[in-house]
Amino acid sequence: MARFIARDSVNAALRYWENVEEAIRWLLEHPHAGGLRDELDDPVLAAVRSWPVKGFRKHLILYEVEAGGIYVLMVTHGARDYARHLKRRRG
Questions:
Q1: Strand partners, 77
Q2: What is the pTM of this model?
Q3: CA distance 13 to 8
Q4: Which domain holds residue 57?
């Protein structure tokens, strides 16, 4: 995503990357802070949570809580069909 943003602005892409990293660090300390994505309505994806990327209000970090931390599944624009992509990754 940062590469796509960089086409228009390298500074915005760097800010995006920094904000994603900051959010992930915060989620490591507060793993249950993100809301469950109930609308996914699929048992395979029942544990998926999301957290917004600061300054990029439509971008989401999709992750699952694991013992000792989180597992980031993807960082994406909220308008994308991320449920389809997640299901494909899970098989």
A1: 59
A2: 0.86
A3: 9
A4: 2-90
